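Could you help me review a protein record that somebody else here produced? This is what I was given.
***
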Amino acid sequence: MKPGKKFRNAIKNNNPLVIPGAINAYSAKLAERSGYNAIYLSGSGVAAASYGLPDLGVTSLEDVLIDAKRITDASELPLLVDIDTGWGDFDAVSNTIVEMEKAGVAAVHIEDQVFDKRCGHRPNKQIVSISEMQDRLKAAVSAKNDESFFIMARTDALASEGIDKAIERCGEYLKAGADGIFFEAAVSLDEYKEFKSNFSAPLLANITEFGKTPLYSQKDLSDVGVDIVLYPLTAFRAMSLSAEKIYNSILKDGTQEPLLDIMQTREELYEVLDYYNFEKQLDEQFENNEKESS
């Protein structure tokens, strides 16, 4: 089944579809083993984890593609990818979609901020006109090779224009061909409810920590019509703090022994990676090489 079709089925068959962020290929495998039905690659996560940079539009299509391809090679789950503003003009947006499809990505979201974008939960965001965002979406839709490939429009308009204008924008984005809406930085359940009173298209709630949006439960969100609940960097934040504490502890204590109970064991790692099966194939290859040379 094509990745886009998998993603659409996951939305249809889950109420809501819960999507965790997977910062790299190994994280994707862990999420798959945990029973999720889709995974997410955050642009902010790529910038921070892969390049040590802030989420201010400084990473490129090529930077994100590297991580996306690694994830799709490692996991069968449909992958939703953050493509920021599409990295340029009509042709650049079209090329982005082509490359994402080639990489095995199932879905993307593209936003209505200006090219020099900011994190969606930071102040002073600037957004483009409705017509410019529609052009981005039209470029994305026209570039699809697979009709099931899912293109989501993210709007950051709520902070600067209010709920009514944000809803108006959503309607125009759907007319331009968006398959769903990423309603960024909502501050109340009523705002999601207002969207669903106007449109039936799939709606995504970004439940990121330490941002503008309260940490609503999946039930609360489902009750107001949210179709997709995203946890973009939850695991990454936990990994980062854990790693920092471990680095400090090793320097302080001179040994990692007190930390063993919070570590994944070698055997657990091997199980996730299917290590012994790979090793068996390697052993068989060595045996065959020896037979051929004798």
Notes: The chain is about 50% helix and 10% strand. Residues 114 and 127 are 5 Å apart (CA to CA). Residues 234-253 form the longest helix (20 residues).
